[in-house]
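Table S7 (text form). Paired inputs.
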Amino acid sequence: MAVAADKPLQEHPDRYGPDADSAWRHVDWAAHQHWVLVDGTPVNYIEMGEGPPLVLIHGLAGSWQNWLETIPYFARTRRVLAPDLPGFGDSPLPPEKISMPGYGRLIDHFCASVDVERGSVIGNSMGGFVAAELAIAHPQRVDKLVLVSAAGITAEHQRNERALAVMRRFEAALAWASTHPKPNFLLRPRGRQALRLVFAHPEKLPGPLLFEQAKGSGKPGFIDALDALSDYPLRERLERISVPTLIIWGERDRLVPLRDADVFEELIPDARKIVYADTGHVSMLERPARFNRDVEAFLKGSDPVAGG
């Protein structure tokens, strides 16, 4: 199974952004795309590599492409699976209303459908909320948990407030940008303005990578998922997470505040936190070398570097 393992991966461990010629650009992604029927919903997913399972869960307005800098790295030693949540990416809306418990249940059933009895799980933003829900409600599936700028704390106070309007405007801007035929358009002033809500320095990221991220926008699940984020309390249930948990946050996250990382670290019994300096909402794309190194150390049972 080709995973471009011979391609050098992130030679500068603390730099902002990936190498211009990242490993993901040398992968035949169509060869790794699959479909599985889960609870009556077709789910699109990427699978690459062999070894202990690693499940990656994207965030709001996202898709499996949020993990382009992550999948080839870990597929060298693990079986990596990155689904599109129903209503996002290429997966159609589920038959029932979108909810965080429903997404957690779907990931549990997805794992059963693809013969993952137990594995490590990484979730970003809304995907972090879903990953936490999976660890709480279906603990048999998760052996280690990584929460990357996870939603679920501040979101409980944001229902019908300005933050929801900001997210809607951001998603609309990305949806419009994703239709532009030239990837580098997202590095022009108009595209860059919207991207600054997510990335600390969008101008430092390759245009093709940003263009792939925009593909996750404009999907039918956005509004229902946005409402679901603020409609289900998570804080009081975090103490039920029983697995080792790594919390990774960007110091300049403008979507989910850094103070939320402190809450996750305080309430999850076996949790440790890393904050990346001068980084926004998607650490795995903004500092992929550092992210991959820290997560790999955690999954192997070592302590990642705690500094910024």
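Next pair, protein 2 of 2.
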Amino acid sequence: MVLYNALFFLSLLRHEIQGICVGEAGLIRIIGKNKSLLFAAVFMAAGAISGCYRQTSPAREVPSRTFTDDLGHSVRVPEKVDSVVSLAPNLTEIIFAVDAGEKLVGVTTFCNYPAEAKAIKKVSDTQKPNIETIIALKPQVVFVSTASQLESFTKTLAQQEIAVFVTDPNSLDGIYNSISKIGAIVGQAEKADKLIDRLKLRVANARGRIVYGSLPKVFVQVDKDSLYTIGKDSYITDVITRAGGVSATADLDTAYPKISREAAIAMNPDVIVISESEGNRDLNEAFRNSPAVRNGKVFRINADLLSRPGPRIVDALEQIAEKLSSRE
């Protein structure tokens, strides 16, 4: 608008002069007569042009890094990350395990480990994140697990310049990769690497205790009534293998398939692992005549250990390996 007014003044001056080629004496008389108008127009034009220049100057770019998440997306994050939100318990555990818990400004209502996580602002029940609350907390990065959430809110957060990093591991190596990348994002790459080394050593030692001549067939009961279990795309299938067994459902499509009662009866597992949680403490009656029941090989593992692809999955693996190696 200022520039428009300045040009308007110059236009008036041009009409007043009625042509620039009037001779030296005439030009001096015209400028003298209209010098106030000329100075005003020039001053306004200069100010307008200067203002336009300032408005179009490129903003200073914040140093950043780029990571590839488990969906294959390139995620750009600030070079220094000071505030993050976790939308899954396993991600919260990873962040604390790499000694970056103080960076968490929001977690889910299911984030109960470690104890410090309970005091952090709750922004989600894992299924329905409160986008308004997340935006108000102004995190630089939101960590998401596709095991419990959809990516539908990513665009909304991106509009607020909040990065979204998705993890979806389907093996122990995938979990190690999640730990490594999350550690790097929050500035704790070295601690993440050391944690991974410790976990790998524990896994190797647990596998070394297996004494079975042949690998026992293991069924994992995720839900008693619906008979949900693990399939070939579940990281728990890899856990069973590394613990010294073979999953009875390793060939089933998807990560967590639902099987029929008839299929369960036909499996005849040697060992049954119950992912123990409210509503999933007892064995489905379809297995009552299985070798696992006859030989007393039905074990319970805390679901918080088994169902969270984070550092404590190795606790679950060690417990399973110990049960598999027992001859009792």
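The first strand starts at residue 64 and ends at 68.
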